[in-house]
């Protein structure tokens, strides 16, 4: 069985092994985790013939440098518009390339996007915890953080023709975001929701896989800080006592007592994750019925897109 091995020459903060996540464990205090940009993870796997939710390397803006020390394997790179270099030669992202023993792959921040994904044409050796290789960044449980000086192994490898993906890039940052008010709008002063919907917002540097703080108008609370702790979902816009809004992401805590003024439409979350510190954004209101309708429409469209991607990958 063919194998490829890698030495991690450099890994920036929050570079980790991720897959489709571990849903169903929130009641035990375990976040679902998974990719920050789930669509890009799936498309990287499709490009190299792997299951949509197979383990990949998620690369942050800090970047990643891998030295192939043994074997050969093809890999796909999706996500943001990162700069990709193979042995010092720039190659296009959103494509498939092959790396062989003695070669170096560099992934570093480019002009846009916050996360990139590397999927291998083979079985990436990634420890599972509760059935998933997704890494919880705060604890390291799951496949694990990718760290400088570490090693990676890919089993049952294959090499594929180098090519660009014959599909449009879908990982563009999304700055116009849809939200459903609640579930605790009653805990805010009456003008807070209007401030959320009409205010000027920017992503701050205070963000990680757990959540991203926003810069914008203060969302003033009413009698809100005595509410009981309750379950939390990815995409919740939570507001602490200082009035600062935080969008909760893949590694969000499972319960919390701060009120949530609104919840972002799930289809917008991958695009939101690709925003960088300093990027501007705004929110548009949806009522629950419209949100359900949009969610079903986007889910059907995404399923069709994935099927198209699978057919294109087989050509």
Automatic annotation (TrEMBL):
Question: SUPFAM superfamilies this protein is in?
Answer: Cyclophilin-like
Q: What are the alphabetically sorted keywords of the record?
A: ATP-binding, Hydrolase, Nucleotide-binding
- Matching InterPro entries: CT_A_B, Cyclophilin-like_dom_sf, PxpC
Domain Carboxyltransferase span(s) in chain numbering: 27-301
- Chain ranges passing through the membrane: none
This protein's source sits in the domain of life called Bacteria
Q: Does this entry carry the keyword Nucleotide-binding? A: yes
Among its keywords, does the record have Lyase? no
The record's listing under Gene3D superfamilies reads:
Cyclophilin-like
Citing just one GO molecular function, the answer is:
hydrolase activity
Protein name, per record: Allophanate hydrolase
